[in-house]
Write a structure and sequence with these properties.
Keywords: Membrane, Transmembrane, Transmembrane helix. Pfam families: ACR_tran (PF00873). This is Efflux RND transporter permease subunit. InterPro entries: AcrB_DN_DC_subdom (IPR027463), Acrflvin-R (IPR001036). This protein is α+β, with helices and mostly antiparallel strands. It contains 15 helices and 13 strands. The strands form 5 sheets. Strands 1, 2, 9, 10 and 11 form a 5-stranded antiparallel sheet that branches. A two-stranded antiparallel ribbon has the order 3-8. Strands 4-5 form a two-stranded antiparallel ribbon. Strand 4 and strand 5 form a beta hairpin. The radius of gyration is 36 Å and the shape is elongated.
């Protein structure tokens, strides 16, 4: 039994395809020989148990060396004395002990190999192996014990290699409430401190690298650093082509900032123990909405990107109506500007509320979903839900900013006329 992370069979397959190990996180130790790899692995196992966020019971280093092997060392002088070649001796050993396939039997659609070797009672211990007869020149039969020296040795349990180097694994898992990438960063920082202080020493030729699912997070983060700005830029350009004004587009763009704050507030709510901690009709709402700490995963950022796309709806709705009213009756004073803004804002309250409400209501089945895919969909929906809930404030923010902009324009025009 090992203390390796507990995984289900299908989950284990997926994890092994992603990381090459039977754990979501681990360290690959590269070295010139198995003994040094095992030694470093044991030291890493000892050090990792003290890292913040690492589940100490899950840390386990591969036992690379320790399997007993039966080694036969050929006495070259003895076989030369009997006129036996090394090739002929090894051929007899491989067939008598290991077994040699002679043919294949056919049973309907099935095929079975037919092997030839000594019966088990003649090869199941070293003393019996010494009695195996080896044919020599002239027809003599020489016991194997006179030709080889049989010894027990400790050898590798499994030999793994990667990038032309021998490799051993040190696997571990995180505690609840910690993100994988944070745990790996803590472990890297801790081991670097130990290396600098001399408490942990790497032998010559031995190196190690962290591996695991967190690598997907790092790759995704690098992509998101490009995707998120590009998405915001595209949204800005689409709005600009509609309104043909940088200032007007910027005012509408404030809806994204408001919605972004709402998304983070909702993520914070999900990490609080008191949030939705009540029951109705025997149903606990924390269980219904699966309230728990949500880390900033790729799914969460995908939810934010989707939020950016819909967060400007109310701003576009109000700005378009303000523009239409201005075209019909241009405002020539501050008072007229404010009256126009109040009229436009009050008449767009119901459409804006309906636009936001339909989005929020559509997200409720996703937030309460269970089963396959829910672990991805729920983190995506949380920023959308929180952002669209707070985004209602756009009905107040955009008209006020729009009024300030138009008032400043009117004041400048009046000032020019007086001059």
């Amino acid at each position: 039994m090992t203390s390796a992370p507990k995984l289900q069979p299908i989950q284990t397959r997926l994890v092994m395809l992603q990381t090459g190990m039977r754990a979501p996180m681990g360290i690959k130790v590269f070295g010139p020989d198995l003994e040094s790899i095992e030694k470093v692995g044991f030291e890493l196992e000892k050090q990792l148990k003290h890292v913040e966020g690492v589940n100490g019971m899950s840390v386990f280093a591969d036992r690379v060396v320790g399997k007993p092997y039966l080694e036969m060392e050929i006495d070259r002088d003895a076989i030369a004395r009997y006129g036996i070649s090394i090739k002929s001796l090894q051929s007899v050993l491989s067939s008598a002990i290991g077994g040699m396939q002679l043919t294949t039997t056919v049973e309907g659609r099935e095929r079975f190999p037919v092997r030839l070797r000594y019966a088990r009672e003649y090869r199941d211990n070293p003393e019996d192996l010494k009695k195996i007869l080896i044919p020599a020149a002239g027809g003599a039969q020489i016991p194997l014990g006179e030709l080889v020296e049989i010894n027990y040795i400790r050898g590798p349990q499994l030999i793994k290699s990667e990038n032309t180097f021998l490799v051993g694994y040190v696997i571990f898992d995180k505690k609840e409430g910690f993100a994988e990438i944070d745990v790996v960063e803590n472990a890297q920082e801790y081991l670097n401190e130990k290396l600098e202080s001399g408490e942990f020493v790497l032998p010559a030729g031995v190196s190690y690298v962290f591996t695991g699912n967190y690598e997907n997070q790092i790759r995704a983060t690098k992509r998101l650093m490009i995707v998120v700005p590009v998405s915001l830029m595209i949204i800005f350009l689409i709005l600009y082509f509609q309104f043909r004004s940088v200032i007007s587009t910027s005012l509408i763009f404030t809806g994204i900032i408001v919605a972004l704050s709402g998304g983070f507030i909702m993520l914070w709510f999900y990490g609080q123990t008191w949030f939705l901690d009540f029951s109705l009709a025997g149903m606990n709402f924390r269980d219904l909405f699966q309230v728990q700490t949500i880390n900033l995963s790729v799914a969460v950022w995908v939810g934010f990107i989707a939020l950016f796309g819909v967060a400007t709806d109310d701003g576009v709705l109000i700005s378009t109506y303000i523009k239409q009213l201005q075209d019909k009756k241009p405002a020539k004073s501050v008072k007229e500007v404010r009256e126009l803004i109040i009229e436009a804002g009050s008449k767009r309250v119901r459409p804006a509320i309906m636009t936001t409400a339909t989005t929020i209501i559509a997200l409720l089945p996703v937030l309460t979903s269970t089963g396959k895919g829910s672990d991805i969909m729920i983190p995506m929906a949380i920023p959308l839900f929180g952002g669209m809930t707070i985004e209602v404030l756009t009905m107040l923010v955009v008209p006020v900013l729009y009024s300030m902009w138009q008032e400043s324009k009117v004041k400048k025009e009046l000032k020019k006329l007086k001059e």
